[in-house]
Amino acid sequence: MDLTPTPSQTVGPYLHLGLTDTRSKSLVAGDGAKGERVQLTFRVLDGEGAPVPDAMIELWHADSEGNYAHHDADADGAAFRGFGRLATGEDGSCTFETIKPGRVPGPGETVQAPHINVSVLGRGILKRLSTRVYFAGEPANAADPVLALVPENRSTTLLARPDSTRPGNWIFDVRLRGEGETVFFDV
Amino acid sequence: MASSLIRSKSDNPKGFVVPFRRQEPGTQPDYFYPAYRATRLRAPSQPLIFLPHTLSEVTGPVFGDSDIRRHDQDLTLQHAGEPLGERIIVRGRVVDGDGHPVTNSLIEIWQANAAGRYAHAKDDHPAPLDPNFTGTGRTLTDNDGFYSFVTIKPGAYPWRNHDNAWRPAHIHFSLFGPAFVTRLITQMYFPGDPLFAYDPILQSIPDERARQRLVSKFDLETTKPEWALGYRFDIVLRGRESTPFER
Questions:
Q1: A179: closest chain B residue by CA
Q2: Staple B123 to which of B10, B41, B118, B200, CB 3.0 to 4.6 Å?
Q3: What is the pLDDT of residues B114-162, one digit of tens each?
Q4: Sequence spans of domains, chain A
């Protein structure tokens, strides 16, 4: 048997039917999870700056102590799941309820700054786009081994910014193409 | 294999990980494929930045029996009556790049009905909806990596990508595998479909052999006499770099 990985295809415009109509997960960390509560809003924008109303965002992140819930968190009744997924609305946005992740070990002796691993899927996206959300103003960002790989003039695209009018709310723009294009990773 | 999985920081204070292998050129679609019109404004223009794998990439969400509801695996039993169309069984095995089974792993599918219409508010193709068909399924692979669904064969349908554009019949597949980097969303096609050559979504994969991997095979072994045709669709997720048993 040929063991080359199966090719990717777009999730298409009807992703909701299979993935989010009854199976979306906006709650990444329940009330019982330790850590600083965060409401994280994504806005997905296309190459002309128009909102993308048929995209899907998936999150994967560590708990407040830097551990991943790499087990069946629902079956365990755990407050912290670490996984979320939502379709974007007509305005291209979706909002997750979670906590700010802790720090996870990086290569060698490094420790990564708090970050959220993100998959962006949608019509017109032939294979999953992968990016990371970091938090603006976080001192650990300066020594993060992954941010260090990103050209300085683009690293701000990976920073969620606090919503000054609503404490605990953060906003992250995913610009798929062109001006201010978000950094995407080859994972 | 399980023993090589690194689950958390406490198992692994130095962040040592066994990375996953990278994809071979031509075996996956490019992002920018102008014949598929929607990529023109949605494909990144900058090169991706190579990310060495850390704990963040080699861990991933785990799903279990609590994620599966009754009749999720049989799309013909989800309503009061049976859906119209050709009943089929889709069966296959999910393995990693070393041929090891991917066990107890979530698979989600969705598809159009036999007339080529999705039970979705935004699908305005003037073909009938089927009150007995939603087109959504979900299952876990077993201990050998096998899965199966009972469903009906979806119809081809038009889309507005270009003049007289039709999608070949397909079933959408979503898989997680063991890690953030093994996430795969793809589409399964049916053998001998005359629309393959005209479909920019399938043709966005440069390598012909890679495209063929998305075409299921008619399978007499899966076929049940007097009841349903069987199609075999095996899926390969990315494997890890060399293990201690390999060079």
A1: B45
A2: B118
A3: 999 999 999 999 999 999 999 999 999 999 999 999 999 999 999 999 9
A4: 15-173
Model pTM? 0.95
Tell me the chain B residues in contact with residue A80 when contact means C-beta distances shorter than 8 Å.
none
Q: Which two tokens stand for residue A25?
A: 């997960």
pLDDT in tens, A101-131: 999 999 988 999 999 999 999 999 999 999 9
Tokens of B151: 């469903």
CATH assignment at residue B51:
2.60.130.10
The DSSP secondary structure of B132-168, one letter per residue, reads T---EEEEE--TTSEEEEEEEPPPPEEESSSTTEEEP
CA distance A94 to A172: 10
Which one is catalytic: B91, B170, B211, B240?
Answer: B170
Contact B44 A184 (CB under 8 A): yes
Of A19, A61, A129, the CB nearest to B108: A19
Query: What is the average pLDDT score of chain B?
Result: 93
CATH level 3 topology of A15-173: Protocatechuate 3,4-Dioxygenase, subunit A (2.60.130)
A-chain residues near B180 (CB < 8 A): 60, 117, 119, 130, 187
Specify if B194 maps to a domain. yes
B118 is catalytic: yes
Catalytic residue among B33, B147, B157, B189: B157
Instruction: Show the domain range for B26.
Output: 2-9+20-236
- Is A47 in contact with A54 (CB distance < 8 Å)? no
